[in-house]
Amino acid sequence: MQDTFSQTLLSIASQLDNPFDLAAFCYCYLTTKVPSQAAFIGAYIWINENSRQNNPNIGKLHQFCMVVKGILCEAHEAYTERQKDLVRNVLKMEDQLEPFGESEWNQCTLPFFILMAIDEYVNQTGNERTESGPLNQLYHDRIFVYTNTVNCMTDEVIDNTVILSASLRNELKHLIIIERKDIPAEIKTPPRIVKLALGKDDGERKRVLEGKVLKAAVIPFACRNMIEIIHDEGALFHIGYVPGHREWSVNRALTLLHKALEEKANIIIFPEFVCEKAVQEAIREELERLYWESPDKTAGLLLVIAGSRWDNGNNIADILGYDGTLLGRQYKYERYSDGKDEAGSLIENLKNPGKECTIVEIENLGSVMTGICRDIVAESYLARLTAIFKPQFLLVPAWSPSVYKGFKGQMERITAKNFRTCSILCNCCEAYEKEMPDKREIGLVVTPCKEKTIVKGKTEWILRNNCREDCECNPCIFIVNMRMEYLSEEADGDYITVTTEQKL
């Protein structure tokens, strides 16, 4: 005879250190016992007044859900002290279940409604949470649990018209679940969510986050020769830097950083490859210095994506807070390949693809993901993560000779699928230097646009219109202004107005 749900819960109680461990256990139990999530939800969870029979336990199960939520809210940080109360209520509900359908699936309604209770618990206590995700501490071999950011800048102006399939994940509003199988086998560490902390003196930053306008600085850096392709075995290659690049690029990066800060940018994006380690460290140190010595200069700044560097066989972007804090890193996962099998073919020789993935959560703004260049291609690891996390913003440092072919369609599909994701891509002028010096598209912005009842991705190009001969000593940046405007459910048109301006 198989164990009941309560017996299984009791047997692993020592592995449940907080409500998120409990959520991971319940989700894992359900996916093991219920091979068809839609069939389970349709028969045992949802009701239809025209049906010949609905689950007779559904009313009691909703009451059970409220009881569990109450226990979690009372326990809060002392979950293990109230675990006995929770188990006692599980046993009580188990005894009260009326026979319905298959016995094992009928019992599975208990872990389902515990999941719903944890989801509501997160909704009630979410603003009090400061720790990074994943949040399950002990029960984490197969499941990783995060909280979802809702009621954010883009969400307030975008109606969700996406029809979701019936699944456990889609029943959750405030929890995000990732299964081990969602992560490629070579990646050992699940994505991290880090909260951007705001202090009591961050008045300007809070005003920005409470407003309806976001300003991003896109920095294509330079059109000079800065990197070189170094051939390894076969078609594999890695990136090196031309002599003198370090000192020149450090000065260049700091000049561009100050220019973006003078424009009151809230987010700053540097491109792929050119920000070698010394450049990233110089940006970090300058942000830290300005935060303490000239706080007015960084008053509205939130994040800096310090491009990416090629370092020890990896392509790595540093994600920096407004005060220079290293919030996390993004390791490129999807290798560049020219798609050829002939003399001169190229495949990026990444040592630890996707080793780290950092998502920054910012109150009132939402979650911000970073993808490096080809990471956003269809069906890549990062593209799959955007479908799970549904970030409000996706920031993409790139080094590519084809912005239109390589990114437009892919980024539009991400927005259409997620309905709320705004993407900004920053390309590097060096990618056009030799063969396409007159190419204008140096970046793009994709935002949600409503067409009748369908949300689509709409592209605005970031164009080089006024390149100057003295670019070497007077670099430019591009400012992207995004104004959020609420549209009623019946209205068609843009949710977010985008304007771009080249600052010489």
Please tag this protein with its features.
alpha/beta
Describe this structure in words.
With 504 residues, the chain is an alpha/beta fold. It has helices at residues 5-11, 19-33, 37-45, 58-75, 83-96, 103-107, 109-125, 168-171, 203-210, 245-262, 277-293, 381-389, 403-418; strands spanning 143-147, 175-179, 192-195, 213-218, 227-231, 236-241, 267-269, 303-311, 314-321, 326-331, 347-348, 358-362, 366-370, 393-397, 422-426, 441-451, 454-463, 477-484, 493-494, 496-503. α11 (277-293) links the parallel β7 (267-269) and β8 (303-311). α2 packs antiparallel against α7. The longest helix is centred in the N-terminal third of the chain and has 18 residues, at 58-75. It is elongated, with a radius of gyration of 25 Å. The mean pLDDT is 91.
Give the topology.
Layout: H1 5-11, H2 19-33, H3 37-45, H4 58-75, H5 83-96, H6 103-107, H7 109-125, E1 143-147, H8 168-171, E2 175-179, E3 192-195, H9 203-210, E4 213-218, E5 227-231, E6 236-241, H10 245-262, E7 267-269, H11 277-293, E8 303-311, E9 314-321, E10 326-331, E11 347-348, E12 358-362, E13 366-370, H12 381-389, E14 393-397, H13 403-418, E15 422-426, E16 441-451, E17 454-463, E18 477-484, E19 493-494, E20 496-503
Parallel strand pairs: 3-12, 4-7, 6-11, 7-8, 13-14, 14-15
Antiparallel strand pairs: 1-2, 4-18, 5-6, 8-9, 9-10, 12-13, 15-16, 16-17, 16-19, 18-20
Helix pairs in contact: 1-5, 2-7, 4-5, 4-7, 10-11
